[in-house]
């Protein structure tokens, strides 16, 4: 569940061989790059251990397995299905996530915030296509997009308080199909990480400002679209 479009290169017998189609119908290999399969095994293992050792604790233990985490849809779907009406109100909730450190078999704990919130945004730059031999007839969304990517890196470096945590990443830049054709549009997929909702809002505001300014500078401001895809508080 929740596999990502990453090829598993472990060489192990049980390495993922599953393929998925992207929006254009191309087949891509997928794997559990975020460790969601380990999360399920650990959750089942905890439930098994508690069930086998009831004399060591008391109360009611409820194990949750959230689907659709990568698209921020699983928890909402569970709530929409009436989850809160189906279970007693919990007195304590425990949540864990696997990491590469500490080593396998060890458990780590840390005071204060540790794993960040996440938000994803999609930017579509609407330029004007032309033949590569006549660039003066175009509004090149690739050039504008490249400027946006570079400028976005200044947000954390120059706008966010150094004592606060923030990350801005561009994970996808899609534009054009031919070497000699300047495309009409370019699309960027962004992911941001923070510990603080106010910082998250600051990043989104800065991203919108930079995108609009670069599109205005490049002449592609008329039909710009920028929307939030996923917001995980």
Automatic annotation (TrEMBL):
InterPro entries: Amidohydrolase (IPR017439), Bact_exopeptidase_dim_dom (IPR036264), Peptidase_M20_dimer (IPR011650). Residues 117-216 form the Peptidase M20 dimerisation domain. Gene3D superfamilies: 3.30.70.360, Zn peptidases. It comes from the Bacteria. NCBIfam families: amidohydrolases (TIGR01891). This is Amidohydrolase.
């Amino acid at each position: 569940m929740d596999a990502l479009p990453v090829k598993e290169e472990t060489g192990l017998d049980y390495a993922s061989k599953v393929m998925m189609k992207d929006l254009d119908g191309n087949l891509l290999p997928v794997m559990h790059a975020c460790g969601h399969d380990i999360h399920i095994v650990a959750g089942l293992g905890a439930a098994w251990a508690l069930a086998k050792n009831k004399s060591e604790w008391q109360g009611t233990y409820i194990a949750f397995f959230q689907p659709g985490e990568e698209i921020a849809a699983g928890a909402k779907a569970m709530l929409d299905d009436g989850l809160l009406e189906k279970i007693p109100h919990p007195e304590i909730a425990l949540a864990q996530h696997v990491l590469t450190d500490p080593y396998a078999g060890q458990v780590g704990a840390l005071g204060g915030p540790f794993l960040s919130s996440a938000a994803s945004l999609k930017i579509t730059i609407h330029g004007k296509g032309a033949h590569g031999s006549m660039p003066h007839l175009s509004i090149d969304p690739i050039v504008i997009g490249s400027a946006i990517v570079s400028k976005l890196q200044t947000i954390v470096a120059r706008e966010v308080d150094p004592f606060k945590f923030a990350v801005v990443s561009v994970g996808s830049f899609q534009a054009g199909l031919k070497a000699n054709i300047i495309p009409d549009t370019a699309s960027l997929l962004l992911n941001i990480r923070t510990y603080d909702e106010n910082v998250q809002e600051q990043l989104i505001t800065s991203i919108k400002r930079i995108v609009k300014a670069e599109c205005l500078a490049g002449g592609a401001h008329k039909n710009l679209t920028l929307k939030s895809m996923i917001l995980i508080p």
